[in-house]
Design a protein that fits this description.
Alpha-Beta Plaits; two-stranded antiparallel sheet; 11 helices; elongated
Amino acid sequence: MKQLVVLGGKGGTGKTTVVAALAQLMATEGRLVLADADVDAPNLGLLLAPEVLYGERFVGGSEAVIDETACIGCGTCQDVCRYDAVLATDGVYTVDAIACEGCAACHYACPAGCIDMEPAESGEWYRSMTRLGDLVHARLFAGQENSGKLVSLVRHQAQVLAQDRDARWVLIDGSPGIGCPVIAAVTGADLALMVAEPTVSGQHDLDRVLGVAAHFRVPAAVVINKGDINPGRSAEIEAYCRERDLPMLGVLPYDDAAMAAMRQGRTVTEASDGPLAQALRGLWAVLKPMLGQ
């Protein structure tokens, strides 16, 4: 079983479009398990129409709860809270669950010992079936943290499922940026495919996310999406990769077929035989031997 994670460095690079197309191509050659590691804004399901088979709440931290019957109304909890999560109404102290960061400062400072730290449900994770195979995905509740922990859970469940299914691949749709969710998505992967866009910000963020992969010793390769809209910048990214001995796997063209396929809820390679679909098939042909297949 090989794990391929697709990252973009920033939002909007076309990462999920590439993941969905690769999933369709991989599914024709063997069993795979998909994992949507963007738990803050998951959208792989928009193209794959998953049927949820199992779901479970995710507890990612704790929140303070005040026992009003034991509270002496001293206001110490409100004084020590750096997040303005403790509210006072007519002398009654309560905790705003959205604002509470779970730091437990009020719990330790309360002279009456009336503040408990209780597990906080931060999101949900699901195991679903799609036309291309199993999908493990999740949703972080609004205002909640610990998205890195939830991504780690999604990846673990995907690996367990892949072993049970005797799958050849785990294909991971990563999240933007270089924070905890990306670290959780890339750690331990066999290959990280970086989808770059030919812009100044795209090149800058590519450099940052490549640094994350290098730190965790995950081999990386690069593909440029919509490269023909800015050939000069695309050439700079290709030169950047040559200088660092990074595999440059190709340049994907801009193609209206991508948007048309999305409107149909299909992958580009299912809905089109145009230039983008052909380029994506070429990308998979290059990726396959890199995954030892």
